[in-house]
Amino acid sequence: MKKKIDLELTSPEKQILKKSNITQKSFADLAVDEIIAVLNPEPQRARIIQALYEFQSIPSIGIRFAHDLIFLGYYQLAHVKDKNGPDMLNEYEHKIGYKVDPCVEDQFWLVVYHANHPQSKNQWWDFTAARKAYRNKYGYPNTRPK
After folding, report:
1. Mean pLDDT in the chain?
2. What is the DSSP string of 45-79?
3. What distance in Å separates the CA atoms of residue 84 and residue 138, rounded to the nearest whole number?
4. Predicted confidence band at 29 (pLDDT cuts at 50, 70, 90)?
5. How many Cβ atoms sit within 10 Å of the Cβ of residue 40?
6. Are 35 and 12 within 8 A, CB to CB?
7. Mean pLDDT over residues 123-146, rounded?
């Protein structure tokens, strides 16, 4: 487990936690409705907080990539369990309209792997060789942004 997970809590949200004597680590066990009961945010805000915690709990996944997953509409690891890294990268690049660094695809591979192997300690760079082999064999779609 990472030492620091950034939930991007607002000052009022942090004050509520402090007054309630609740730590950010406790968010690992909270469902969205429980986050709503504690912080009283809008339901979508509670979903984002829970997703930020869950995704950043994966080794080597940070706040920026957690937001990328949310941007694609994923809020739980269960949502990516049956996905694959190459398709997720293709979807992401299509949605943002430009190519990204190849290590982003490695992170997609990691998230899918972690969704299926929750106790894994793998890091995103553990998937670089598999990604390179896959792309050497299959390439990228013709619709990939320039």
Report:
1. 95
2. HHHHHHHHHHHHTSTT--HHHHHHHHHTT--SGGG
3. 14
4. confident
5. 12
6. no
7. 97
Amino acid identity of residue 61, one-letter, is: I
DSSP state of 29: G
What is the rounded CA–CA span in Å between residue 64 and residue 67?
Answer: 5
Fold held by 1-57: DNA polymerase; domain 1 (1.10.150)
Q: Which amino acid is at 116?
A: N
Q: Are 69 and 80 in contact (CB under 8 A)?
A: yes
Q: Report the distance separating Cα 54 and Cα 29, nearest Å.
A: 10
Task: Give the confidence band of 109 by pLDDT, cuts at 50, 70, 90.
Answer: very high
Task: Tell me the whole-structure pTM to 2 decimals.
Answer: 0.93
Signed CA dihedral, 64, 129, 94, 99: sign only:
positive
Q: Which two tokens stand for residue 145?
A: 């942004």
Question: In the chain, where are the structural domains located?
Answer: 1-57, 80-146
